[in-house]
Amino acid sequence: MKNNIRVNRATNKISQDDLAKLVGVSRQTINAIENNKYYPSLELGLKLSKILNCSVNELFSLDDE
Amino acid sequence: MNNHLLSTRWLIPSGIVFYSSTIIGILLMTSTITLDTVILEVSIPNLFKLDDPLVGHNQTWIKNNWMDEILGFLLSFSGLIHGFSAESDEDEYANFLRFQALKWSLVINYSLLTLVSLFVYGFAYWQVILISMYSVLVTFVVWFRISIIRHRR
Lengths: 65, 153
Prior knowledge:
Chain A is mainly alpha-helical and 65 residues long. Chain A is 57% helix and 6% strand.
């Protein structure tokens, strides 16, 4: 699975630290998600998509898509 | 998200007790130092009256030094509390790291135990079983702690 969090974050001009605070996780967790070291839960995925103003499908996609 | 963890305030006190009792336990196992004192030798009810030469022949009450029992209790109890207390920055990734540490601790310990069961016999096997009682918990806690420290960098 790949994600576009870094791109969407840059578009919305939100830092890792700010995004982490908005969704209630640590900055290192956002970093781990962006680097594909950790796949977030559905709850966190939905929170991220809400904050970054996009759908979950825009934020996360399967490798073969 | 309800992760059924204990409060963060237990993390440091339980850590102090856990690491201290682990170090004392390792020292006691690897050296000739002994914590046996006359004060802690008490009569206790022998609940399992097996005909065991180590414990006694069907005795209802036996004399026993409680030092090793206390140390084992402190290690197990504080290890559980330390391993399952919420981190100050607890989130789902910390929970994921905790699960990974628990998984690898079980895999490594039981893999070693399987090998030991095949190749170690006698008193040495008894000692390995004794160590394995605590090594699952120790490996889990240490693995998780290292993972959390690396995660925070």
